[in-house]
Amino acid sequence: MLLNLETIVGGYIRGQVITCALMTVFILVLLLVCGVPNALALAVLGGAMDVLPYLGPLLTIVPAVLAAYGNGR
Fold first, then answer.
1. b/e burial code for range 37-66 (CB count within 10 A of at least 16 → b)
2. pTM score of the predicted model
3. Residue 50 to residues 2, 18, 56, 59: CA-CA distances in angstroms?
4. Which of 27, 46, 49, 53 has the smallest number of Cβ neighbours within 10 A?
5. Angle at 19 between CA 18 and CA 23, to 5 degrees
6. What is the DSSP letter of 53?
7. Domain boundaries, the chain
8. How is residue 8 annotated by DSSP?
9. Low-confidence ranges of the chain (pLDDT < 70)
């Protein structure tokens, strides 16, 4: 039973890491195309916040929008 639980939890954590990494790359490309300053820092923040299901995107959008708005593009 413990081995089965370890497999399930390990798969979940691997899936979360893959999802966070893909989200980081997606956000980075999007912010670079839009010309937002500090795109890498915002992308890493967005990838880390992807762990939080509903609150994470909101916590990522606010700094990205403020950075883009300050850039004037």
1. eebeebbebbbebbeeeeebeeebeebbee
2. 0.80
3. 28, 11, 5, 10
4. 53
5. 120
6. T
7. 2-71
8. H
9. 2, 71-73
Amino acid at 55: L
Among left, alpha and beta (phi > 0; psi -120 to 50; other), residue 43 is alpha
Cβ neighbors of 23 (< 8 A, separation 6 or more) are 46, 47, 50
What 3-state class would DSSP assign to 50? coil
Q: Which residue has the tokens 């899936």?
A: 15
CB 32 within 8 A of CB 26: no
Cα distance between residue 47 and residue 16, in whole Å: 10
State residue 44's pLDDT score. 94
